[in-house]
Specification:
About 40% of the residues lie in helices and about 15% in strands. It is α/β, with parallel strands linked by helices. Strands 13-12-11-10-9-8-14-17-18 form a 9-stranded parallel sheet. Strands 5-4-3-6 form a 4-stranded parallel sheet, with helices on both faces. Strands 1-2 form a two-stranded antiparallel sheet. Strand 1 (about 5) and strand 2 form a beta hairpin. The model has no long low-confidence stretch (mean pLDDT about 90).
Length: about 550
């Protein structure tokens, strides 16, 4: 079938040789491996077979056809050739929102397959997509995020799971964060960005000494751990500090704070040493940094604390926890995702103090290296002022908006030098008015929240040790090889290899047939697993 086609007043196919024109356009498309080609409104599929034949030499590329119009979607489903319908490098969907498309792409082709997005215009169907470029940009950012997550997992995945194993003994001793409740009290959630200073100045000016202690102020304060030195400097004791960081430089946040009576919400994969600095009590939560079978086993026996989505930023986690702890409003301040030439963090935070210590005749307080870095760009703050940001900060800002905007009418932000977060921004006066509209002032632990016993943890630990011993025995020849059992043990002990760079953020691993064939790649994979086993056994034994 070759004919012109118009829809909703727009000519989508020319009346003159539409198939030939589409094929000639397909011949001009640059063929690049690991590319997702985005084809809006494919209609009869003209030009797709020609393009796919060219993509045969790029097996990691694919064409995604999008058609949200029901009538046009039916046309494509009916008129696509059998060759198109059965081509693994082609996908057709009527999903047009970015989140749904990302899920579709991962289901069809997996994660970390593509590196870039290229928009195809083989006919006039692109006219039905006014936000086509924005959609392509969003998909490109999601692809970059997948690769960024994989790089993070390769770099920190081993540390995350080692910290989590070392922190497991905390579970019988401390309640989950859901056991804590602020009822309907308003919560002020603080990040450590530069705008925190003006927010705290205004807070002290408005509330005076009453804002310093939990019992005298009409609202709760939840802060990220980096804020603690700045709050201590002002004599403000928060109701809860959020501890998420897994690396040792996190201890800088607690310098001089040992024994301070501040409760902390502590992530299971955070640096174990950070759990014992503050003296106000510990509440546990867990953010699954990737999908691991050990998490399923921990959950099945009731050993996982409160589960939070992996948001990557302690500021986002603080907002998420605040929303869980209160039924009242949550107002954020200092969650900026931006900086200026002379302010990267709030005053008295570790980064600011380090800058002061380095100041001399040759090194001033201005952070020109950060402001003029290669990936830094100018942005506009909530107040309209010019600030600096970078791709990592922007991704966190976008994630904040995705996570909270629209679905969280109780969440607000205070005007300041930070980037807009996608939630309603309040003036200082409006924010303070909501903070004084106090709800029921109760700080309690939920008695219905039961902590698992130490015996349950001991049984779980023994089972994990047994798995590792059998797996080690098979790899060393001390236990007879059973490839079915070997494949199962590799899956069950996936925390041993999930951080390998060639497997990070992916469920791929050699299947039973590959294990039996024993190729060089498989032998390398098994040797690396063998190296990981003894250090993890030592962790479990301790």
């Amino acid at each position: 079938m070759e004919e012109g086609f118009s829809y909703k007043g727009k000519t989508l196919l020319s009346r003159v040789d539409p198939a030939g024109k589409a094929e000639r356009l397909a011949d001009t498309v640059p063929v690049i491996d690991k590319t997702l080609y985005l084809c809006p409104s494919p209609l009869y599929g003209y030009g797709l077979e020609r393009l796919l034949s060219r993509l045969g030499q790029s097996p990691n590329s694919a064409v995604l056809c999008i058609e949200p119009e029901p009538e046009l979607y039916d046309i494509s489903r009916e008129h696509f050739s059998e060759k198109l319908k059965h081509n693994r490098q082609l996908g057709l969907t009527n999903i047009c929102d970015a989140a749904g498309l990302c899920a579709f792409i991962r289901k069809e082709w997996g994660s970390r397959v593509f590196r870039r997005v290229h928009v195809l215009r083989l006919n006039g169907g692109w006219q039905l997509f006014p936000d086509l470029n924005n959609l392509a940009d969003t998909l490109q950012r999601e692809i970059a995020l997948d690769w960024g997550n994989a790089m993070t997992l390769a770099k920190l995945g081993r540390r995350y799971i080692r910290n989590a194993i070392r922190n497991l003994p905390l579970i019988p001793k401390h309640p989950p964060v859901d056991a804590l409740s602020f009822d309907a009290e308003p919560v002020l959630t603080l990040g450590a960005g530069p705008s925190l200073d003006s927010a705290l100045d205004a807070l002290e000016s408005r509330f005076g000494e009453s804002c310093h202690e939990q019992k005298t102020r009409p609202f709760r304060i939840v802060c990220v751990d980096t804020c603690l030195p700045a709050l201590r400097e002002r004599g403000i004791r928060p109701d809860l500090a959020i501890i998420l960081e897994s690396q040792h430089w996190n201890l800088d946040d607690f310098t001089g704070l040992s024994g301070w009576d501040v409760p902390a919400a502590f992530d299971l994969s955070a640096l174990p040493r950070s759990a014992v600095v503050l003296a106000g009590g510990l509440y546990l939560f867990f953010t699954p940094w990737t999908q691991l079978n050990i998490f399923k086993r921990l959950g099945a026996v009731g050993l996982l604390p409160t589960n939070l989505p992996p948001l990557g930023s302690v500021g986002l986690s603080a907002a998420a926890i605040s929303m869980r702890l209160t039924q009242g409003v949550v107002i954020t301040a200092g969650i900026d995702f931006s900086f200026s030439m002379d302010a990267y963090h709030a005053r008295s935070t570790p980064g600011h103090l380090a800058r002061l210590r380095r100041q001399n005749r040759f090194t001033g307080l201005l952070n020109a290296g950060a402001a003029f870095g290669q990936s830094v760009f100018r942005a506009v703050s909530k107040t309209g002022s010019r600030v600096f940001s970078n791709p990592v900060m922007r991704n966190y800002r976008d994630l904040f908006e995705k996570q909270f905007a629209g679905s969280s009418p109780r969440l607000f932000d205070i005007a300041g030098s930070g980037l807009p977060l996608g939630v309603k921004t309040l003036s200082m006066e409006e924010a303070f008015s909501l903070l004084t509209d106090s709800g029921q002032a109760i700080n309690k632990e939920n008695s219905a929240s039961k902590r698992p016993g130490a015996e349950k943890l001991r049984c779980f630990t023994d089972e994990e040790i047994d798995r590792l011993l059998v797996l080690r025995g098979m790899l060393t020849g001390e236990v007879p090889m059973d490839y079915n059992s070997l494949a199962n043990l590799i899956d069950e002990c996936d925390y041993l290899w999930a951080h390998f760079p060639d497997y990070a953020a992916s469920s791929r691993r050699p299947d039973k047939a590959e294990l039996e064939a024993g190729s060089q790649t498989v032998v390398s994979f098994l040797n690396r697993i063998r190296v990981e086993i003894d250090p993890f056994l030592k962790l479990w034994y301790n």
